[in-house]
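Exercise: predict the fold of this chain.
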Amino acid sequence: MSRVTLVTGGTRSGKSRFAEQLAEVYPGPRGYLATGQAGDAEMAERIERHRGRRGSDWVTVEEPLAVAEALSRIDGSYSVVLLDCVTLWLSNLMFSAPGGAPEALERVREFTGRFAGWTTPLVIVTSEVGMGIVPEHPLSRAYRDLAGEANQLIAAAADEVYATISGLPLKLK
């Protein structure tokens, strides 16, 4: 059974950097499952910055939608896999899955249901998007609600959960 660690926090809270530190206690090669897509210049630069932090012991696998399937394919290939990040995955699913947010949440349930079958330790990054103001637009509220529900499902199934605030990790579970 895979050991699952969830790292959550707000924007620019240090969650990805902390998750990388957790994964770096494992020897290489390490897997990095990226859900983000370079849809614009700013996102492309962000992706390159993240890649630049990781050394040659990291192998990047890009998968914006079929995250559980990708993890099943690479299970056992690396000493650890870092999934960055759930909230980008959810955004991708909301706009591509015919069932929208309900289908995306079902995919999260399927994802957590596979934890017991994987052997590779897994570090998961997600964002806390519901700690600010209530969004004005219904689509934004639906996304906020989806992210909150998904984070709760993953946190419940994880072995350890950390929240990062201002670059400082706090162990919750």
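Check your answer against the key: The chain has a mean pLDDT of 92.
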